Amino acid sequence: MQSTTTGIQSKATGGILMMCAGVAFLSVNDAFAKALTEHYAPIQILFVRNLIALPVVVLIALKFGGPSALISYRPAAHLLRGVIWLGAATLFFTSLKFLELAEATALVFAAPVFVTALSALVLKEQVGWRRWMAVLGGFLGVLIVVRPGAATFQLASLLPVATAVLYAVMMISARWVDPRESAWTLMLYLVGFGILLSSVFIPFVWVTPKQEHIWLFLGIAFFGTAGVTMITQAFRFAPASIVAPFDYSALIWATLLGRLIWNESPDLATYLGAGVIILSGLFIVFRERTRES
């Protein structure tokens, strides 16, 4: 019994560490993307990143999922998810050109709040009044960060909010994928369709990458792929209710990277709104865990 308990705790610890590392890697990915948006269109950045990452993703899928990971039973579902993901990523990368890294990151944290709202409104799931209060709290946090009507309001602040909505739709859309398909299949087809869909726009936005920017493109391919892989593994190590809250550690990394690279210093309202959004998200995770136990 003792060894079983120790094993469970060890897996939970491993999952938490994997989640924190994955989130840190994705934060570096976002910082690199922010640097590239000064010179290239977001859709080109995504195209090049996915093109570089595809061979690695195929190898990862084969290693962890086997040959069956390459097979999809519902490719149309993956195509639709690819459209949603490409839209979300394009909006987020565009927002990085105008907003501080921490501010954009904080607003994307609203995704779990939108997932809960969409689960009730679209999927007709039962959502109790406590979780609805958490949803309203999350919206309040978004308003605090965005500050509509204030002198500091920027239309660009709505881009990461739209990103959060699309991310929420993408999370829910995982239910449309055939249950026989693994997480590695989802990742592989997301990258593959990301390349296919973004290539449509490349002739209109393409700018030949400068030699000094090649390492940034290689960096987002590495950190983005490694980050997603680590987070996927984290959910395999431990239950979502344990590892999911550590996603919010991204705000720490976004703040540090923003300060170190661009000397950004988010104001008090951004931190306050982020805190409200995070508390709402954590409450939703807690309620989900309570309902499942």
Index terms:
mainly alpha; 0% strand; 75% helix
Q: What layout of secondary structure does this protein have?
A:
Elements: H1 2-36, H2 42-65, H3 75-96, H4 101-108, H5 111-121, H6 129-146, H7 158-173, H8 183-199, H9 202-205, H10 214-237, H11 240-243, H12 250-262, H13 268-292
Describe, in plain words, how this protein is organized in 3D:
With 293 residues, this protein is mainly α. It has one domain (2-292). It has 13 helices and no strands.
Radius of gyration: 19 Å
Task: Give the overall average pLDDT.
Answer: 87
Question: From the helix content, strand content and strand pairing, which structural class follows?
Answer: mainly alpha
Low-confidence runs:
none
Order of SSEs, N→C? HHHHHHHHHHHHH
Helix content range: over 70%
Main sheet overview:
none
Number of helices: 13
Shape: globular
Range of strand content? under 5%
N→C terminal distance: 21 Å
Q: Total strand count, please?
A: 0
How many structurally independent domains?
A: 1
